[in-house]
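User: Could you go from structure to sequence for me? I need the amino acid at each position, not a summary. Structure tokens:
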């Protein structure tokens, strides 16, 4: 499914987040002169937040945009429904249009548009654009999933997470775009809810944390203004899920981090606002339209018989975090909730795919923080929900090639998954890639990181790679194995950076575990 990273096809698509075709050129291709003269009712910049696509199916894709001429002040649109036309073509100059239609940008959803286009060809690249009020959007490029019964080919997947606006520019996306992935998997912390900092490299908008829908909309709009993020959204489909910072740090279900300061009713209102803003800014299907303080995000995507991707929600259904080692081993605690847990087990055991991928926002492998005798864990991670985690690890023994793809840590942590982390001699049952952050933690002091973390490696022999550079992970998935790269940048403190490959790793089909090559 991949094309060469330096192909003319990719180079022509986007440069620094701009569309291949300017608005005027696009209008020439789309609108007759009479229509161009009559339809000029919306201001310039109505497509300031760009375009995106997501959740590819063999015959479909979600196309997204949001009308927002004044993005950091609520959007700037009138309180009225606005028709938005879309086109999807087999070529970047829109000479072979295969779908066109009109969607409604409604004020109650922030004038966002989610077009679920169906009837497309599997494993096919397409180009798309929108028009509203005489204005033309940037051009986006996307790809459908392969045919359901396709067993060959390959899939290039990029893993990203944790992009803190205040900690740095989102420069890893420039390199990601150059690597031309078929799909981008984003596993959480798309925005951060933290207050603006006077000392930050890029200061958050607003005057405090977001709590209302208008405040969350403004925060998302600010993040969407990053040119490298905008270019990547326009360059490939995303599959997204959220973690905690899209709402409130370390929240669990309907329990905030600080219950004494956020009463239940107030936090429910915050959840509803955060989930709606999330839906409004993500290329997801109507199944994710929130209902108050709930949004359905766990779902499954198929890439032929090559890979099944199980996207988890590790926030909405979890028990409150434990506060002790005994609590972490309480069998009543759940990370996924009963329904999602059974859904995942069924999807793993019934899978026809060669590779069974699990998008888990939170690290599954053990992190023993205590050097020497004893254990010390992060209770917000799967280490805090050990009974449920251990059940999955046992189940992995009868699952074909399970691989967990994770975020949250702001570190690269690549591990073998053990059937029982309490027994270092237990069987390896899978592998986990904890992707580093796009910008969170900024340009980290590497020497300080080594002094803190290297002494812990003896207590965590399942760790295969540990690093604190900013970047993302890139996977080339084939039937015989997965070749992974840890792609990093030299800085996120400047708008441009120099990328490199920090490490290469390999997973062999039928052989659990991962090796550094």
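Assistant: Here is the amino acid at each position, in order:
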């Amino acid at each position: 499914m991949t094309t060469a990273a330096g192909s003319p096809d990719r180079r022509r698509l986007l440069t620094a987040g701009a569309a291949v075709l300017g608005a005027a050129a696009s209008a020439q291709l789309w609108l007759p002169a009479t229509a161009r003269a009559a339809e000029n009712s919306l201001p310039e910049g109505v497509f300031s937040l760009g375009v995106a696509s997501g959740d590819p199916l063999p015959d479909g894709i979600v196309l997204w945009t949001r009308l927002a001429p004044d993005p950091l002040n609520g959007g700037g649109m009138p309180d009225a429904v606005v028709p938005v036309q879309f086109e999807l073509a087999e070529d970047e100059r829109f000479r072979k249009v295969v779908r066109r239609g009109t969607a409604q940008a409604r004020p109650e959803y922030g004038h966002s548009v989610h077009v679920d286009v169906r009837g497309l060809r599997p494993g096919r690249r397409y180009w798309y654009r929108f028009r509203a009020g005489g204005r033309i959007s940037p051009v986006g490029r996307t790809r459908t999933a392969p045919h359901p019964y396709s067993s060959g080919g390959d899939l290039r997947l990029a893993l990203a997470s944790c992009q803190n606006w205040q900690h740095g520019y989102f420069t890893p996306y420039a390199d990601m775009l150059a690597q031309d992935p078929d799909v981008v998997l984003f596993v959480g912390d798309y925005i951060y809810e933290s207050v603006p900092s006077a000392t930050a490299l890029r200061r958050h908008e607003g005057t405090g944390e977001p709590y209302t829908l208008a405040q969350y909309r403004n925060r998302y709009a600010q993040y969407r203004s990053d040119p490298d993020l905008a270019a990547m959204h326009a360059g490939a489909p995303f599959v997204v899920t959220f973690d905690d910072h899209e709402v409130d740090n370390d929240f669990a279900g309907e329990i905030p981090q600080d219950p004494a300061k956020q009463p239940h009713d107030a936090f429910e209102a915050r959840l509803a606002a955060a989930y709606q803003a999330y839906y409004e800014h993500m290329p997801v299907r109507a199944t994710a339209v929130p209902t108050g303080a709930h949004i359905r995000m766990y779902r499954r995507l198929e890439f032929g018989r090559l890979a099944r991707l199980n996207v988890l929600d590790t926030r909405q259904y979890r028990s409150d975090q434990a506060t002790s080692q005994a609590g972490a081993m309480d069998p009543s605690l759940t990370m996924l909730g009963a329904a999602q847990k059974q859904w995942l087990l069924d999807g793993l055991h019934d899978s026809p795919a060669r590779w069974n991928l699990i998008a888990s926002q939170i690290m599954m492998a053990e992190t023993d923080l205590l050097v020497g005798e004893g254990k010390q864990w992060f209770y917000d991670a799967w280490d805090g929900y050990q009974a449920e985690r251990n059940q999955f690890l046992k189940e992995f023994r009868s699952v074909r090639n399970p691989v967990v793809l994770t975020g949250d840590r702001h570190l690269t942590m690549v591990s073998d998954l053990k059937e029982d982390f309490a027994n270092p001699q237990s069987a390896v049952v899978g592998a986990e890639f904890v992707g580093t952050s796009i910008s969170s933690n900024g340009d980290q002091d590497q020497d300080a990181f080594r002094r803190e973390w290297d002494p812990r490696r003896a207590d965590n022999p399942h760790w295969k790679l540990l690093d604190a550079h900013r970047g993302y992970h890139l996977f080339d998935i084939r039937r015989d194995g997965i070749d992974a790269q840890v792609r990093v940048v030299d800085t996120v403190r400047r708008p441009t950076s120099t990328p490199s490959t920090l490490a290469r790793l390999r997973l062999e089909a039928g052989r659990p575990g991962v090796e550094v090559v």
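One structural detail worth keeping in mind: The mean pLDDT is 93.
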